[in-house]
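Please check this.
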Amino acid sequence: MPNTSPVADSAGVVEQELALGEAAGYATVQPIGAVTVGQKGERLAELGAMATSRAKVRVFSDDGFCVWDPLIMRRALEYVKSFNGVIAQHAQDPRLTEGAQMNEGIVSAELGLTGWPAVAEESIIARDVLLAEHVGSRLHVCHLSTAGSVDIIRWAKKRGINVTAEVTPHHLLLTDELVRGYDARYKVNPPLRREEDVLAVREGLADGTIDIVATDHAPHPSENKACEWQQLRTEW
């Protein structure tokens, strides 16, 4: 009978991803493991099994889902510290973004769309950099998008906290003013922000506060975008 335990499954999945990348041969593929089982945020995935597998996973993320429970986040940071791993966080407080359609601000108010406040991102980043400092572990912040987030990362780095951060091309170039046309291409996660935020993340990239530009590419079939703005659910 095959071993179908969670440990075997998690290690097997990342090893399969590694093998597929090696077989294709076009680029080096380094699998990223989930932080929690099923990305549900309820209990830790088998981080150790993935780390000791042939894939040698060192980066763990729940991708488009925030590890919102502070105790689980702390335990994850503690666990990966033992093998110099990294927790990559999608910073989004789920309660503060319930039903959110776009950046919270003047444009959302004028359009009558539920806003996504900057603090929903910034509060998670602030919490996590403090947890990373407390544990002495490594944290990576995925696709930050606000001026406040840049300030927090800048402060954390000056304090000596082991944190890195990334920004996407669209958050470097586009603002929430584009939402006025209800073009579904501009409904992204995190949402497009204000011009002040765009200028701040550009400055953060230029001065080294932000470490990398990452596409955060999530392809969707055109029919998924051909609907009313409020009905669109992007799989972030």
Remarks:
- Confidence is low (pLDDT under 50) at residues 1-8.
